[in-house]
Amino acid sequence: MTEPLLFELSTPGRRGYTLPALDVPASALPDDFAREDLPLPEVSEVEIVRHFTRLSQLNVGVDTVFYPLGSCTMKYNPKINDAAASLPGFTRLHPYQSERSVQGALRLMFELQEALGEIAGLPAVSLQPAAGAHGEFAGVWAYHQHRGDAARDKIVIPDSAHGTNPASAAMCGYDVVTVPSDAQGNTDLAALEALADDSVAGMMLTNPNTIGLFDENVVRAIEIVHNCGGLVYCDGANMNALLGTSKPGDLGFDILHYNLHKTFSTPHGGGGPGAGALAVTPALEMFLPTPLVVRRDDGSYGLDYDRPQSIGRVRAFYGNFGIMVRAYVYIRMMGADGLLQVSEDAVLNANYVLARLRDVYHLSLDRTCMHECVFTDERQVEYGVHTLDIAKRLIDFGYHPPTIYFPHIEHLIEGAIMIEPTETETKATLDGFVEVMRQIAREAAEDPDLLHNAPQNAPATRLDEVTAARKLRLRWTPQ
Hints:
The chain is α/β, with parallel strands linked by helices. The chain is built from 16 helices and 14 strands. Helix 4 packs parallel to helix 11.
């Protein structure tokens, strides 16, 4: 038994005191974690404060720089949303409280369900899924429950869909069949017609798709699948391009998931937290996860578990409540006119960037885009410069790189540079970004090595990412 560790604390003018001993024998630690020497420096308080403050200043976030990530937006989040979600009446709730003690929270959830149903044109809504892909999983299970037909074992998915779509379908036991995009980036209707038979349970379609385009064939594609007895699922991750302009339910979709954290504002760095609210037609409402939030005849709010055909819970409790609060505040603050402007500005900003860069970066599909525009490195490759080099060089100018190498659709797009300005950025910000992108295009032609060695102004320069992925260092060791 080793001597216990005692921490003596004292403050001038006060009596010293001792924290309780941590009686942990060294033998209790695995050999791999025991160190004979821990070379930590002795530093003053001001030095340690400066050290961690400098580290914090290296963080890149949407509050400090333009964040042109596409597909899963790192958008600015109004501070009032966070303030509302931080109110004690929301943060101090417990999921096991009685319904009568959480009427405010239940009312918020009910009204959020109603709003999301109206926006989607799909009136029945569950808030339970924890993320977009989780909503897909729940939605495809609703397919399965609805069909009750083992012969229908295929889900058709366009090659322009999000990668979570085929993953969700496969997890639910379906065979995934890919339908290609046509030369304009829409669903290839001839290919879809050839696939549409009585083995098709449904189609999952991302609209706008991962190329940043509204599928011009969407209504006919939905008709084809419906005519063969299938249902059609809309991946609504890009709904920030459609608010107030197009309701997926009116187009014919049967099921849609929202990414509340994307369309309706919640910080989404590092992949979370998220919320994947699920909206369906009235015919599918009975299969939604339990419980649903309902308004009772006496005007109170409650949780409805009495749904015998439900697919059951898809997670513990009722969803990520803090994100629901933020989404609710966002929708109520914006109103119908404000939500329409969100989409109009998001689409305008993306097309402005497209128009100002189309002469220096290649566009595989040169047509009006929606919320994001996708360039490629085709013109820069002739100088030996690739998409990764362009992304790394952007760091030197203080911009977070956009999404790169996605989507990859072999016959349409390779070396993708996906830029999503979102609705929140000003023209001045976009102009600054455009000028930097144009300068990088000039540098690619005149001094390719400058890009090959970028970033040069960052704390870490070009990393060997392949080696880092293959030889992970999972614990800190002194150098």
